Description:
By secondary structure, this protein is mostly beta strands. The chain is built from 2 helices and 11 strands, in the order E-E-E-E-E-H-E-E-E-H-E-E-E.
Amino acid sequence: LEDCKVSLTRNDKGEPNWNMIPRSEPEPGPPPPPRDKLPVVLRDLQLQNCSLNVASLKLEEPLDFKFSSISMQHLESDRWQSNVSGTLNEEPMSIDGWFMPFQALVLGGPLEHDLELRFSRLTAQSSGSVKDAKTWEGANLTAKIHGPDIGVLLEEFRLPPFSEGPFDCQLKLNTEGSMTKLDLDGDLGSVDIKGKGELDRLINPRT
C-alpha cells in the first residue's frame, strides 16, 4: 500500500468520524466460544509514504504520523519482524525488532518480543515475555529508556521542567508464582529514581 492518508477525529461532542467494528446485537442462546485463531493472517505487509492524523478535544494538539515505510514479515517459528520509520509531529521516529505470535496482540496469550523504539531524543528498548498479552500477567522482561537530555524532551512534550541532563532508567519484571516483582532503577537527569514492589499483572492490577 502506497501514498495512503487516514484522519481520525472527534467533534466537540466526542463523536468519532470512524467506526472500525460496528456494535451488533447479541445473538440469542449461549455466547460463542472465544476465538483461538485470527480469521485473517497477514504474511507480508508493506506500506510506503502513508500518514495518520489523530485529533480530539482531549489532545492538546493533533498527533500527526507520517510513515515513510512500515514493514512486517512473518518468519519461521511464528516470529514477526517489524520495521517502522517516519515522524511524529515532525520528530523522527522508528521501531525495529520482532515479536511472536501476532495473534497474541489481538486474542491474548503468551507473547515474546525484542523491540527498540526511537523518538526524537528518546530511545526505549524492551525484551522478554508475558504470559498474557491482554493483561500483561506473568511478565519476565527488561525495559530501558535513555537519552542525552531529559530537559529538552520535557519541553517537547510540554511537561513541567523538573530536571535536565542525560537520563537512563531500567525496569525489570520477574514473575514468581502468581506475583510479578518490579525493580526500577536509574535517573532522569538530576533526579534519581528507584522503586521495588510486586503486582499480579500490569494492566488493571487486582493486587
